[in-house]
Amino acid sequence: MQARNKRNAQGIDVSHWQGSINWNQVRADGRQFVFVKASEGTSYRDNRFITNIQGARTAGMLVGAYHFLNAQSTAAAQREAVHFIDCLNMVGGAKSLDLPPVLDYEDNPGKLNSSQITAIALAFLQEVERLGGRRPILYTGNAFAAQFGRGLSDYDLWIARYSNTRVPDDCTAWQRWDFWQYTDSGQVQGIRGGVDLNEYHSTLGELQARYANNSNQGDEEPMTAEEKKAFAALEALVKTQADRIASLTDSRDMLKSSISKMDGRVQRVEQSRSMTIPDWAQEAVNRAVAAGIVDDPEGGSYDFYRLITVMYRKGLI
Prior knowledge:
Layout: E1 10-14, H1 23-28, E2 33-40, E3 44-45, H2 49-58, E4 62-68, H3 74-89, E5 102-104, H4 114-132, E6 137-141, E7 157-160, E8 179-186, E9 195-200, H5 204-212, H6 225-240, H7 248-261, H8 263-273, H9 279-290, H10 302-313
Parallel strand pairs: 1-2, 2-4, 4-5, 5-6, 6-7, 7-8
Antiparallel strand pairs: 1-9, 2-3, 8-9
Helix pairs in contact: 3-4, 6-7, 9-10
């Protein structure tokens, strides 16, 4: 996976273990975002969740929340998702937060296999999105990330690897990180003792464009129905073609056809919400241009760049 960058947005994550926090000092110390522990299992709520959310918001930080998963089955995962959403509703709901809800899945006490772990994660993520109207992301450790299958690769990744130099390892589901928790013993003004430090893979502006601004779009979905249909067709192609990379020429033609069908929608979005190519999409856009799938990627919309990035991560371009 990629290395850290000095211009990347900096943040922390906290729970009741950090005790009382002076959020104005935290913000003044250069921390721009925070993920706050909300819940665990089917009944536990962190006793400082609401206080931490309110304090960080007042200090002007971007805020998100996470749930620590204990589930050993898909049914249990869905019940935990319900509890998580209930906790988020205490602070205005998932859509009121600047950052997406997070699934914290980092251990395997039941010694489940990779397929079971992936199914449990998907059950939780899908239920959270259904109930909260917000697409979640997944947090896990560098070693445990290898347990997840390709079915999770279109969810953004927050990964823990405690090092300033050794980057997280590539794995089946992800080859890039979106957030990196690089230490659990950081020192931050306003917090007594050590705290987890995190880094977003781009600037604060890009972080806001990717997540925070999207939290105020009402019921608009990240992808249109037609875009979802086109992507579903591409995903089906991946599942039925074991040699999808070798047959890139045929796949390229299908991608061109799918993007052509969405052209009207993309043009309307570009006219009203055009943006420069985000850093997180640049590598995927370069590959798409090189493959001849798109000719002029400048000034596209968020949905356009997200679709291209998902295609790239799936190995379709």
